[in-house]
Amino acid sequence: MSRLLDKLDAEKRDWLHRCGQMAVTRGGRAFLVGGSVRDLILGTDQVDLDVVIEGDGMDVAQDLARGLGGNLTRHHAFQTAVVTTANGSRIDVTTARREEYKRPGQLPQIVPGDLESDLARRDFTINTMAISLSESDFGAFIDPHDGRLDLEAGCIRAMHPRSFADDPTRVLRALRFSLRYGYRIEDKSEEWMNEAITGGYLDTVSGERVCKELRLMFTESPTQGPCRLEVAGVLPAVHPGLRFHREVLNGLQDLIEWGQEAKGGASLAAKPEGWLMVLGCCAMGLSSQERWNLARQLRLSREERAPLIDSGVPWCQATSLLLGASSQPPNSMVERALREIDRGALLVGAAIAGVDSAEAEMVRIYLDQLHDVAAELDGLELKKLGVPQGPLVGEILERLRTAKLDGKAPNASIERRLVKSWLAENQL
Question: Where a domain ends, among 183, 214, 239?
Fold first, then answer.
């Protein structure tokens, strides 16, 4: 295990050497810890560097940032800092600490500690391994809680009976790790986890923290994640109306994949974050007010709310208008009805309606053919044709766009003819 650091490239090993030297200079010691060590053992391609300092981690982080010519971001309350190197790489530096939880779900009080206490405060044994960065024993492997054995056995084991009660977000992390690695949750740990869920401890966690965990879960496992959360009782604990809908989520993935191949769908389908669209599908049974309440509960920004909110009433109103108007509404009507709806909400709504539905087909037509249609003439051309400066310019451009969408203005020549006709009608 002493050669684990050899898996890193030379530049990252140099950074860790510097951390070790700088810590010793300030009378402390440095260690690579947690997920960094776990991922090195697993052979993960990208390993984030997470360093713990016995001593003043903030001073070491400052020295490291200065030495590397990087940027430093400090979080004094938790004695953590982030060093961002010139090439954009990130090194998390933390002062070794103990944590004391006054109440379930509350952020802990931080007390300086040593490596032993820092590892003991962590969530699961697979995250309690460390590697020394001191020059005297650089690369030495430290595993006081047998994390390596649990890692090799494919087992997620909580550190103590109060682990999930102290920090209920560990419930979501345990489920996320179990999906990511295909590991089982150790029996006693699962019992403690279920007690935290049924005891309502997730209600004590801030919306921001729950939102962060849902983002990670739904990003990593957009279909299996919601399923696992529902089976465990987590989805209804977040909101009673949230449900796993396998067919809808499978349809969403099909639509996203289609969007990546479509002429105009790729950029639009990629714009909304995928996890928000997954959340929108899980919320398909919620009323408009419940969607707003959920968005506020999770502290979603205005932009983030759109796939959740717009896939409700706005989507239903738009598609009802289109389907009620005609079996084949004109392209301009489709474009006007769908242009104001968030792109993620369009895909969510189409998935809920069904990938083979008339609604989904209108979304595909809009994204692939209609969303970026524009008149060939511009404001300057209209001025040359005699259109007076002012609101009329925008009105005529919109009329030209409508004509183009409906196949009535296939080229610039016909657009000019239409403009002249409109000007004549209005005696301009």
Answer: 239
pLDDT tens-digit series, residues 22-59:
989 888 999 999 899 999 999 887 888 999 999 888 88
DSSP structural state of residue 186: P
Local structure of residue 323 (DSSP, 8 states):
H
In this structure, the number of other CB atoms found within 10 A of the CB of residue 292 comes to 15
Domain holding 204: CATH number?
1.10.110.30
Helices (H), 355-390: 358-365, 379-384
Indicate if the alpha-carbon torsion angle 8, 147, 206, 299 is positive or negative. positive
140 and 181 inside one domain = no
Q: Same structural domain for residues 324 and 306? A: yes
Q: Check whether residue 20 and residue 133 sit in a common domain.
A: yes
Distance CA 285, CA 3 (A): 53
- Which tokens belong to 9? 């490239």
Q: Which of 209, 239, 269 is at the close of a domain?
A: 239
Asked if 142 and 10 sit in the same domain, the reply is yes
* H-type alpha helices, 26-94: 35-42, 57-68
> What pLDDT is recorded for position 427?
62
Mean pLDDT score across all residues of the chain: 89
pLDDT tens readout for residues 178-226: 999 999 999 999 999 999 999 999 999 999 999 999 999 999 999 999 9
CATH of the domain at 71: 3.30.460.10
Identify any residues that bridge with 80 across adjacent strands, giving them in sequence order: 75, 94
Q: Which domain holds residue 391?
A: 379-425
Owner of token pair 């496992």: 221
Per-residue pLDDT tens for 264-274?
554 444 456 88
Give the helix/strand (H/E) hosting 84. Answer: strand 80-84
As beta bridge partners, residue 156 has 185
| CB of 99 closer than 8 Å to CB of 57 | no
Please give the tally of structural domains in the chain: 4
333 with 386, same domain?
no
The predicted model gives 117-133 an average pLDDT of 94
Task: Give the predicted TM-score (pTM) of the model.
Answer: 0.85
Distance, in Å, from the CA atom of 423 to the CA atom of 428, rounded to the nearest integer, reads 5
